[in-house]
Amino acid sequence: MRLAFHRCMQDAPLIDPTGPSMDEAILASILARRIRPGSRLGESELAKIFGVSRTLVREAMMRLEARHIVEVRPRRGWFVVEPSVAEARLVFGARRALEGGAIRLLPPLAPDHRARLHAHLADERSAIAAGDHPRLVCLMGDFHIRLMEILGNPVLAEIMRDLTARTILIAMLYQSDDHAEESHRGHCRIVAALERGDRHAAAEEATRHLDEVEAGLDFDMGADALADLRRSLLPPNASALPAFPPARTRRSSAC
C-alpha cells in the first residue's frame, strides 16, 4: 500500500525523525482526505516508510485506536475506521456540544487572533477560487481546531482534532454534494460574531454550521457495500446489472 504522505517505497526511512510522529502524520493525511475510510495500514509497509520497528508501528496504531481513528481486524490487520450511521450522529452531537460550549468561553479576540482567523478565511477563499479541493478540505477542518487553540486549552484542541478527523471519515462515506462555499460562509459568520464580541451568536452559528453539514449527509450511500464490485462485473455495453440498486457517486465536501 502506498500512503499519500509517501512518494515512493525505498529501504531508507522517508519520514523526517524531527517531524510529526507516525500517528500524527497518519491523522494529518486523514484530515486532508488523502487516506480513506477502510484503508488498510500494513505494519510492515509503515515500518519501512517510517524506518522504525513493527513494535513502534503497533504502538502508534494502538494510540490511534484509542482515538477511534483506526481499528484492528482479527487476522487482517489495521484499518482506518468506517463510521456507522449511528456513530456519525453521535460524532456530530459531540461536536455541537464541544464547539457550542467552548466558543462561549472564548476570550475577546486579540489582534493576532483576528489576523490569524482572517488569514485562514483568505486561504479558504483562495482554495475555493483555485479549485484546490485537497487544500480546501484541510483548511475547513483546521478552522475549527484554530478556534480551540485560541481558547488556549490544548486538551480541547486535541479532542477537536480527533472529532474533525472522524467527521471527515463520515463525510467521505456519506456526503454527496460539494458545500465548500456554504461551509466557508458559515466560518465567516462565526468570525464576524466573535469580532462583535457576541460569543453566544458565534456559538449558535457554529451549531447551525454543523446542522447544515449533517443535514447534507446521505446515509443511504453506504447501504450497498458491493457497489464497486458490481460495477466491475458489468458486461460490455451494459449500464447496470439487473435486480441490484445502481451504484451512487460519492463526492466529498468540506466540513
TrEMBL record:
<dbReference type="GO" id="GO:0003677">
    <property type="term" value="F:DNA binding"/>
</dbReference>
<dbReference type="InterPro" id="IPR036390">
    <property type="entry name" value="WH_DNA-bd_sf"/>
</dbReference>
<protein>
    <submittedName>
        <fullName>GntR family transcriptional regulator</fullName>
    </submittedName>
</protein>
<dbReference type="InterPro" id="IPR000524">
    <property type="entry name" value="Tscrpt_reg_HTH_GntR"/>
</dbReference>
<feature type="domain" description="HTH gntR-type">
    <location>
        <begin position="16"/>
        <end position="83"/>
    </location>
</feature>
<dbReference type="InterPro" id="IPR011711">
    <property type="entry name" value="GntR_C"/>
</dbReference>
<keyword id="KW-0805">Transcription regulation</keyword>
<keyword id="KW-0804">Transcription</keyword>
<dbReference type="InterPro" id="IPR036388">
    <property type="entry name" value="WH-like_DNA-bd_sf"/>
</dbReference>
<dbReference type="Pfam" id="PF00392">
    <property type="entry name" value="GntR"/>
</dbReference>
<dbReference type="GO" id="GO:0003700">
    <property type="term" value="F:DNA-binding transcription factor activity"/>
</dbReference>
<dbReference type="Pfam" id="PF07729">
    <property type="entry name" value="FCD"/>
</dbReference>
<dbReference type="InterPro" id="IPR008920">
    <property type="entry name" value="TF_FadR/GntR_C"/>
</dbReference>
<keyword id="KW-0238">DNA-binding</keyword>
